[in-house]
UniProtKB/TrEMBL annotation, chain A:
Principal place of residence: nucleus
Signal peptide per UniProt: none
Taxonomic source organism: Gossypium trilobum
GO CC annotation: nucleus; SCF ubiquitin ligase complex
SUPFAM superfamilies: RNI-like
Protein name: F-box domain-containing protein
Localization per record: Nucleus
A GO BP entry: auxin-activated signaling pathway
From TrEMBL, chain B:
Protein name per Swiss-Prot or TrEMBL: Auxin-responsive protein
Complex formation: Homodimers and heterodimers.
GO biological process: auxin-activated signaling pathway; regulation of DNA-templated transcription
UniProt keywords, alphabetically: Auxin signaling pathway, Nucleus, Repressor, Transcription, Transcription regulation
Length: 572, 182
């Protein structure tokens, strides 16, 4: 069925860039499989235990860019114990031994060691880009190795990692010959850096477009850096504290006027509210603003700033902006697509910062809204129904009511109807997180309407196995399901075991699943790894099959049991 | 992170300043003075915070954000403060993250856990915990508030009391001898 020579087909494939599409293309026939695999440069592996590095290397000899994800999502909330897994070391070792000319590595929730980073930096002469998100296990020594050895480094992007800071001189390890940097993000590093080195590095990086500083970089250094790099598109400010009447501050104001390419602003890891006015000139052009790590900015400060941001498409902010502040966002930011409102005080429900009112205002004012993460103190069905009427383009809808089982405070009803309305009117919904008081009914709605849903996060919800079954039966595109503290048990788990082969993973913790059911599942489905995480020291795994399992994580895999599991994980 | 306490039997060798009693059952620790203070503070703390049982992993704010946003009240520190700890007579140095500990008593427990073996094996003698601060001076641990201590401590050493004489901490030791008489 192949009317064209291979080179022509390959050329056509060059235009097919999405992972999904390339995966589909490779399944058409043997010939296309072969052409596709030799021409594939970018590979995404959503679960590092689903395949081995050896098989990856064997199939895609032309690999240049690899994305790997390790721990399950709930690891972000301390539900996965330390040392569970997700080690990148075997991947880097295998790639280093091979002929792969790796240029880009992107890792999320993985354990990375300094040795791995050093091996990485020395094994791939064309290495260009390292992006680490929510990783841990390395120190600034590893970062130094990357800086020192990757001669053509373009991107070093460290996002929200736990990095042991040796307060060394990693920044000074970039050789004078390194002039290729396009993106440098070290906001998550805590230690001191050599400011003079930083200035020199920025000065010799004419292609630098993205720079995110850490908290120790003071305002006067910021001013000097902006002088050197007025071409920046993305800026993360470290410390933003000074006396507004100082000369340094005047210089900063002047140089900011020149930075008319900045579209994305974040950081403010230390901030004096009185200095914020200097930022207003660049607000006009901002498309992304992230103030979620800025301590001490009150609702007024935030509102005043936002009023200047007419072109904003993505806003990440703390809930101290308040419902009123969100009203200002709604009337100013007509291009808004993504909103994330984080709790400034997750454990104190006394100070109700944002409620359903703020969300309703946003939904009314921002017709392009498609992605939401909203931490609030309360929500009503009426509000959610209104939001569902106003917004039908949601791709991501994550609502977190700080009290996990809170009912609608007006009617005292569960929030089933509200979420039902959301899924009914947002047909493109791919990701949903639920909270508040919820019965099996909400899952009936989800199973009925959320036909494109790929990821669902559930906590403290539902009444019976029916809830989980509605979801498993109805959501045909489901890839990731994570459940905690719900009354779902063996019947739901075992009803349709084949379903799990169509998904990436299932997490269930503090539910009603027994050891016996997990064993049954593991036995019947050899293509799944069923892991039991048990931290209780008294438990012996030979105990009763009727025992309720504390945490279960199962995922499909092509390579069977992993060899690196810690003692407290039982692989069935 | 281990949640349980030390679980170690108290031995004849323990971290303690000279002049303290050496009864077996007395879990006297170097920072006993300070730890007693800390405990009283805790029990007088705001009742709402104490009685509130926080569900693990809720609200679902990722741990990096929890540690790095202001207003988090769960007591976790913003960064790691790993320092080397050496103990006279122990063959290997250890590393400890000061940020993981809430105070001197917590630290003392952790040190006993790390060096339990060496403590047991050494000849019966007393130990003094000292630390090197940002200025390079060796200071007796326990004088300054905990937060100040973790900011300025660069390394820790558990020194044999007998060696203390040559170390210039003599003055402060005598001052403390007075306070520890009770």
């Amino acid at each position: 069925m192949n009317y064209f020579p291979d080179e022509v087909v390959e050329h056509v494939f060059d235009f097919i860039t999405s992972h999904k599409d390339r995966n589909s293309v490779s399944l058409v026939c043997k010939s296309w499989y072969k052409i596709e695999r030799y021409s594939r440069q970018r590979v995404f592996i959503g679960n590092c235990y689903s395949i081995t590095p050896q098989r990856l290397i064997a199939r895609f000899p032309g690999l240049k860019s690899l994305t790997l994800k390790g721990k399950p999502h709930f690891a972000d909330f301390n539900l996965v114990p330390h040392d569970w897994g997700g080690f990148v070391d075997p991947w880097i070792k295998a790639l280093a031994k091979s002929r792969i000319g790796l240029e880009e590595l992107r890792l999320k929730r993985m354990v990375v060691s300094d040795d791995s980073l050093e091996l990485l930096s020395k094994s791939f002469p064309n290495f260009k880009s390292l992006v680490l998100v929510s990783c841990e296990g390395f120190t600034t020594d590893g970062v130094a190795a990357i800086a020192a050895n990757c001669r053509f480094l373009r991107e070093l992007d460290l996002q929200e990692n736990e990095v042991e800071d040796h307060r060394g001189h990693w920044l000074s390890c970039f050789p004078e010959s390194c002039t290729s940097l396009v993106s440098l993000n070290f906001a998550c590093l805590k230690g001191e850096i050599n400011l003079a080195s930083l200035e020199r590095l920025v000065a010799r990086s004419p292609n630098l477009k993205s720079l995110r500083l850490n908290r120790v970089v003071p305002l006067d250094t910021l001013q000097k850096l902006l002088m050197r790099a007025p071409q920046l598109v993305d800026l993360g400010i470290g410390s933003y504290v000074d006396d507004p009447s100082s000369e340094v501050f005047s210089k900063l104001k002047a140089v900011i006027q020149l930075c008319n390419s900045i579209r994305s602003l974040s950081g403010f890891l230390e901030v004096a509210p009185c200095c914020m006015s200097a930022i207003y000139p660049i607000c006009e052009n901002l498309t992304f603003l992230n103030l979620s790590y800025a301590p001490g900015l009150q609702g007024n400060d935030l509102t005043k700033l936002v009023q200047h941001c007419r072109k904003l498409q993505r806003l990440w902010i703390l809930d101290c902006i308040g419902d009123k502040g969100l009203g200002v966002v709604a009337s100013t930011c007509k291009e808004l697509q993504e909103l994330r409102v984080f709790p400034s005080d997750p454990f104190d429900a006394g100070n109700a910062a944002v409620t359903e009112e703020g969300l309703v205002l946003i939904s009314a004012g921002c017709p392009k809204l498609n992605s939401l993460l909203y931490f609030c103190h309360q929500m009503t069905n009426a509000a959610l129904i209104t939001v569902a009427k106003n917004c039908t383009n949601f791709i991501r809808f994550r609502l977190c009511i700080l009290d996990p089982v809170k009912a609608d405070p007006v009617t005292n009803q569960p929030l089933d109807e509200g979420f039902g309305a959301i899924v009914r009117s947002n047909k493109s919904l791919k990701r949903l997180s639920l909270s508040g008081l919820l019965t099996d009914q909400v899952f009936l709605y989800i199973g009925m309407y959320a036909k494109r849903l790929e990821m669902l996060s559930i906590a403290f919800a539902g009444d019976s196995n029916k809830g989980m079954l509605y979801v498993l039966n109805g959501c045909k595109k489901l890839r990731k399901l994570e459940i905690r503290d719900c009354p779902f048990g063996d019947v739901a788990l075992l009803e349709d075991m084949g379903k799990y082969e169509t998904m990436r993973s299932l997490w269930m913790s503090s539910c009603e699943v027994t050891l016996g059911a997990c064993k049954t599942l593991a036995k019947k489905m050899p293509s799944l790894n069923v892991e039991i995480i048990n931290e209780s020291e008294q438990l012996e795994f030979s105990l009763d099959d009727r025992l309720l399992v504390d945490k279960m994580y199962l995922y499909r895999t092509l390579v069977g049991h992993r060899k690196d599991k810690p003692e407290y994980v039982l692989l069935l | 992170m281990a949640k349980e306490g030390l679980g170690m039997e108290i031995t004849e060798l323990r971290l303690g300043l000279p002049g303290g009693g050496t009864e077996k059952n007395e879990k006297k620790r170097v920072f006993s003075e300070i730890s007693e203070e800390e405990e009283t503070e805790k029990s007088n703390g705001p009742p709402e915070l104490q009685s509130k049982s926080q569900v693990v992993g809720w609200p679902p704010v990722c741990s990096y954000r929890k540690k790095n946003s202001f207003g988090d009240k769960d007591g976790s520190k913003t960064s790691k403060f790993y320092v080397k700890v050496s103990m006279d007579g122990a063959p290997f140095l250890r590393k400890i993250d000061l940020a993981l500990h809430k105070g001197y008593s917590d630290l003392a427990k952790a040190l006993e856990k790390l060096f339990g073996e060496a403590l047991r094996d050494a000849e019966s003698c007393e130990f003094v915990p000292i630390y090197e601060d940002k200025d390079g001076d060796w200071m007796l641990a326990g004088d300054v508030p905990w937060e100040m201590f973790i900011e300025s401590c660069k390394r820790l050493r558990i020194m044999k009391k007998a060696d203390a004489k040559g170390f210039g901490v003599l003055q402060s030791r005598e001052a403390l001898n007075g306070t520890l008489k009770e």
